[in-house]
Amino acid sequence: MSSFDNKPWLDAYAPEVPHEITLPTGSLVDMIDDAVSRFRSRPALEFFGKSMTYGELGAEIARAAEGLRRLGVQKGDRVALVLPNCPEHVVAFYAALRLGAIVVEHNPLYTARELRHQFEDHGARVVIAWDKVTDTIADFPADLPMDAIVSVDITQSMPFGTRLALRLPVKKARSSRTALTSGKVTRGATTWPQLLSHGALRKKHPRPDVSDLALLQYTSGTTGSPKGAMLSHFNLRANAEQGRAWVPGLREGNEVFYGVLPLFHAYGMTLCLTFAMSMGARLVLFPKFDVDLVLSAFAKHPATFLPAVPPIYDALQHAAKRRKIDLSGIRFAISGAMSLPVAVVERWEDATGGLLVEGYGMTETSPVAVGNPIGPTRRPGTVGVPFPSTEIKIIDPENPSVERAPGEAGELVLRGPQVFSGYWKRPAESAAVLLGDGWLRTGDIVEVSADGFITIVDRVKELIVTGGFNVSPSEVELALMGHPDVREAAVVGLPLAGGGEQVAAAVVLKPGAAFDEQAVRDFCRRGLTAYKVPKRILVVDDLPRSLIGKVLRREVRETMLKAAA
User: Fold this and answer.
1) Beta strands in 269-424 (DSSP E)
2) Cis peptide before 367 (omega within 30 of 0)
3) Strand runs (DSSP E) across 110-267, as ranges?
4) Could you read off the pLDDT of 515-563 as tens digits, one per residue?
5) Is 141 inside a domain boundary?
6) What is the pTM of this model?
7) Domain coverage including residue 536
């Protein structure tokens, strides 16, 4: 018998939160169709002030699905999305699923090397991409042929006046336009309007089943290089239902969600692409987080629900305070992907009068598995308690068959309908984290109080969490050691005062090499997206090692913390 079989955390649930959710029987396509039917005339998406109703969203999904069908997309095919937050992202996501295809999400700011690694792994032959990255994909080597590239100019979803302003012959307008679109179509690519030009998908086309694979979400997992977490329609719908159950004060058809988190990230995908859509919310989309854009949108349609990360909450409340903007419409805010300092909670709740609670999860749990209750039983400084229909155990990380008692530190193990089925084409890595009978090893060391509140103590895995994104130290080390002056490198995460970590590196130089920190950073940027590039680089004579020669990153981290102090 497990120490937590009696689920002591249930007493902390907010009123009206069920202990178990009703498990989904329909796919994400059934979910969006239901939302379109029930909320047809209500606004679904807003982008720079231009809105689209649920009825219009449903019609555009049907046209995009027909366009993809004509490009040869069939059930089980992978369709790659390389898009920032924009209406086309939402449409493309559900259109691919409507055909029974598997969506693969990508960060559009990734370098060619990073994207190529993922495409080599999943083998998608059709890609829907931001026009700023289509040239990169078209230049993939001959062994990675694309059947079709669909090019998306996100400015086409903006109001006419905004598009017109971007064409003004002034420096600011040119700079804004360059940031949003390449202004050209890659040779041989299909444009988004062309994709939508064939009418709606035929109704007799087969629909996906709830058990079908819906998404490959790339993650570094608990160790190693990025790999595709396989998430089914069941996993993603279940997590959306768990989220809805967790916040009983939400009003269907009346909430305003702000999409400041990237939809290509597991956190933004579930909270915005599925959760928000399932309840008929207005989803206000931002291509990237920008304080000015968010506060401007707030003046028109204030957010009522804001999923974000700690630095975003702090930036918004500071800016709103300076500009005397009232944020009191935001009733609920959910923070995840990095630690949430209590001071940030206090400042945010003073500014809004609403609640800010921390959640916990990982890509492998679709992603949310644990959350602080929405109410007086919440406990800042902890990540909360297990979601409805979610179970936990605490195990000895060296011997998973041994369970730890409440109050003893150990590795968190989870089970629930949101837990993934494994990594794409990686049976060994899947077996390493899936213990059988639905249990998932998280790689996080936690302590659990007698009443079920979970506190993160440490990580077995050595991933760095920066800005809500996971960074594999090994990937950054390989990039550093590609520099002609660097012999060895060890990469670690250093804590930031506002939560999360900063990527930092200790390097050993080759004999006679002269160190130029900025030059090393610039070199890394050729192969790594910006958030992975080390913000601090320390030159050392040697790296600490174990008896078998393994670099001891924990000791490197301690050395760098002392150097910083």
Assistant:
1) 282-285, 305-308, 332-335, 355-361, 368-371, 385-386, 391-396, 399-403, 410-415
2) yes
3) 126-130, 148-152, 190-191, 213-219, 227-232, 256-259
4) 899 999 999 999 999 999 999 999 999 888 755 456 788 889 889 998 8
5) yes
6) 0.86
7) 464-564
